[in-house]
Amino acid sequence: MSNTYKSAGVDKEEGYKTVDKIKKAVGETHNSNVLNHLGSFGAFYEIGGYKNPVLVSGTDGVGTKLKVALDSKKYDSIGVDCFAMCANDILCHGAKPLFFLDYLACGKLDSEIAAEIVLGMVEACKDNNCALIGGETAEMPGMYQPGDYDVAGFCVGIVEKDQIIDGSKIKAGDKIIALPSSGFHSNGFSLVRKVFPDFNEEFEGKPLYETLLVPTRLYYQDIHKVLPEVEVAGIAHITGGGLYENIPRIIGDGLCASIDASKIQIPSIMLELEKRGGVAREEMFGTFNMGVGMIVVVDAEKAEKVLSLLDDAYEIGEITEGSEKIDLKF
């Protein structure tokens, strides 16, 4: 019997099935700027309508949150997570996402699972007016076990050069406004899984995995509701490292983000993890978003305007003079 690619563990037909299942939905994210379709060696995206455009790019994955999804056999939210982690990052510079590409790796491809993951990306792209213009599916037996998947993505956005937000305009007296997260988002899941090894246990009347797998919140609609109305000095996406590591990324020398932690609305699942795991409060804030998925820094006189534009945003602190860059008061 002669060897074939299929006998080595790679089923090309399953890959073709995946493309068939996602092709129509992916096409629905395209606009007139997309000049070709799935199947080409490269994806074409035409840029127009900008005076001095700057491309802003970001790449990320889902981390070990994937383990929760795979063990729970619930795949629809993972694609949203992958897109959100990339798109929310470039949003911090005022960029509008143009297009997104995904990378899906596995040990043995199941077209149903792969399609479910990609269709989550499709829905997220639609929410952000972004085109899903390409991707790669890699079936790698021996590298991954059957049933294992890894997901990553790459997002490119655009912003006028004179409208780039980089934190350089942040000054003492500015207000810090929090936009709530939808949960853990896609960070800290190595600790989450250590404290909560049973994803099927009941939490607040439903299986725990349903709470853990709530997808990362997409902030595009919120931020681009604010930008035309208010000059924003800085935006930080609160991902791995929590407030301690992400807010200082936009704070200049001689300034400090002074935050009143008692104002932060911490999700009940995070309080449960803190209690059950015996995790110190400072460690929690240095690992998880603690309910703050994104922060916006604006002039004090503009804070009320921002709050009026966003339904669930609230103030958590202000910028002061100091050398520490962040002072989190518990």
From TrEMBL:
The EC number of this protein is 6.3.3.1
Which PANTHER family does the annotation name?
TRIFUNCTIONAL PURINE BIOSYNTHETIC PROTEIN ADENOSINE-3, TRIFUNCTIONAL PURINE BIOSYNTHETIC PROTEIN ADENOSINE-3-RELATED
Please state the gene responsible for encoding this protein.
purM
Show the taxonomic lineage: Bacteria, Pseudomonadati, Bacteroidota, Flavobacteriia, Flavobacteriales
Its BP terms in the Gene Ontology are: 'de novo' IMP biosynthetic process; adenine biosynthetic process
Report the locations given in the UniProt record: Cytoplasm
Instruction: List the catalytic activities from the record.
Output: 2-formamido-N(1)-(5-O-phospho-beta-D-ribosyl)acetamidine + ATP = 5-amino-1-(5-phospho-beta-D-ribosyl)imidazole + ADP + phosphate + H(+)
> Its family?
Belongs to the AIR synthase family.
Taking the record's annotation, the residue ranges forming a coiled coil are none
Q: Which keywords does the record carry?
A: ATP-binding, Cytoplasm, Ligase, Nucleotide-binding, Purine biosynthesis
Which residue numbers delimit the PurM-like C-terminal domain?
A: 171-324
| Xref: InterPro entries | PurM-like_C_dom, PurM-like_C_sf, PurM-like_N, PurM-like_N_sf, PurM_cligase
List the GO cellular component terms.
cytosol
Domain PurM-like N-terminal intervals: 54-159
Please give the Gene Ontology molecular function terms for this protein. ATP binding; phosphoribosylamine-glycine ligase activity; phosphoribosylformylglycinamidine cyclo-ligase activity
> Which pathway does it serve?
Purine metabolism; IMP biosynthesis via de novo pathway; 5-amino-1-(5-phospho-D-ribosyl)imidazole from N(2)-formyl-N(1)-(5-phospho-D-ribosyl)glycinamide: step 2/2
Protein name per the record: Phosphoribosylformylglycinamidine cyclo-ligase
